[in-house]
Amino acid sequence: MIRVVLADDQVLVRAGFRLLLDTEDGFEVVGEAGDGAEALLLAREHRPDVVVMDIRMPGVDGLTATRDICAELPDVKVLVLTTFDVDQYVFEALRGGASGFLLKDADPVELLRALTVVARGDALLAPSVTRRLIEEFAARPEHRRPDPKALRELTAREREILALVAGGLSNDEIAEHLVISPATSRTHVSRVMTKLAARDRAQLVVLAYESGLVRVRRP
To answer: Could you say which residues form the signal peptide (predicted)?
Structure first.
């Protein structure tokens, strides 16, 4: 059972999501929040698997709430909702620990899939728009930062693995590309996440672009 908190200032949006999840096996809505402060309180109280977080809310916005939840409750995943496919705030949410984002006009089946992917600890990076968003904002000069010490301590193979993750490859695709077993690929990715203290693959991608390990290829 995937336990979900819905955070959106629009009552009708929350009602629609609740109706969808209440009719599907394997999902349970344990709370609804109208702003970021309430979302944090509900996350503390219920420890849901996923918080579905709108960015633009009155009072404490979704960006601040995302950072607070990810910092305080590492087992609670955040799935960001947005009405725009390229959004500065969404990038900052990924930077702050969100596990991915979904457009508000996505099909119901996409929401269910997204919740499942995020709840099991994976990042929602499959849509090309996600990688495009990360490339767009992480490559800007104001977001560039020196290599963290942990990144400099990665082995050559681990830096190669990180670059492939940033390119959007799955563990199986990495294994095929490097001609190694899927189990070895998963071990490498897990080790890189541990060394860089990353919550998930989304943060690995952001770090790879911000540090300059991977550069955006312009046409």
So the answer is: none
